[in-house]
Amino acid sequence: MTDVDLAHHGDRDTVPGLVDLAVNVRAGGPPAWLGERIAQADVVAYPDQTAALAAVAARHGRPPREVLLTAGAAEAFVLLARALRPRHAVVVHPQFTEPEAALHAAGHRVERLLLAPPFGFDPAAVPADADLVVVGNPTNPTSVLHPAGALRALLRPGRTVVVDEAFADAVPGEPESLAGESHPGLVVVRSLTKTWGIAGLRAGYVLAGHETVDRLRDVQPAWPVSAPALAAAAACSLPAAVVEAEAWAAALGAVRDDLVTRLGAIPDVRVVPAPAASFVLVETPCDDVRTRLLRRGFAVRRGETFPGLGARWVRIAVRDTATSTALADALRAALAEAPA
Predict the structure, then answer these.
(1) Where in this chain does the record put each Aminotransferase class I/classII large domain (predicted)?
(2) Contact 143, 279 (CB under 8 A)
(3) Last residue of a domain, one of 181, 208, 238
(4) Fewest beta carbons within 10 Å, which of 99, 123, 326, 339?
């Protein structure tokens, strides 16, 4: 089932010169100290993963053999699709489309479990014979944070459960994360590019049992992660960096709450409640809302390329309060515009 463009991502919705609310990466790039670590990486020698593996493993309280470093979360989904042989793969939507795209590319049949607004997740809705389940937490694009218990309830013998935690560090304390837990069949995918503003560097990792990590490494090319990305992985996993990320997440929450309040005050606009990530998902009463906002200087992420959504949905990245105010004013004016 490929009725939507699974390869479409927020970077394709940006427009030069307009306010970018389509890409959900931290604005302003990495902090100065992280930029210095990246710049100091040795790009002459072949990349050595030893230090980065140890740092990521320590950050999550796991042995290094349960960590696989990847060129972003997207590569992790490709490796999983290549290494696993699911008979009945289920992807919980709406969510990041790369897992389903990778499964299709590897020749696997995919069943979609489409959640209805407000996009809460009931593990009992997953078919009992599903041997691969993919779910996001917090989910892109809904920004919904599912209880960890609901995800644990998916685990059973013979089933692999892949949890996309690319935005888990946008939640202070990461209360629903499974990254530090080791269960048979559990695979957690993490990204460093969102919170740290390093999307161009491509840095992420997989946390899973060592047997699964070994299978993924077998289909991964040699030297898959660059030395600068390894330097970033090591630096962002240090205790001081984790504390800094949590402070950023707390500040993000305050700005996000303000954005939700402003958008929710606009007639006929519905914001998915209790967003937990660096973006919010909004339903509007018109199919061309994105085009109307473009005319007012704002680029937002279109919703129709996410299974289960449509053109009336847009994902909006959280920036600063001034941007939230201007965006809300622009959306109100856009919705008051006569139909084309």
Answers:
(1) 46-331
(2) yes
(3) 238
(4) 339
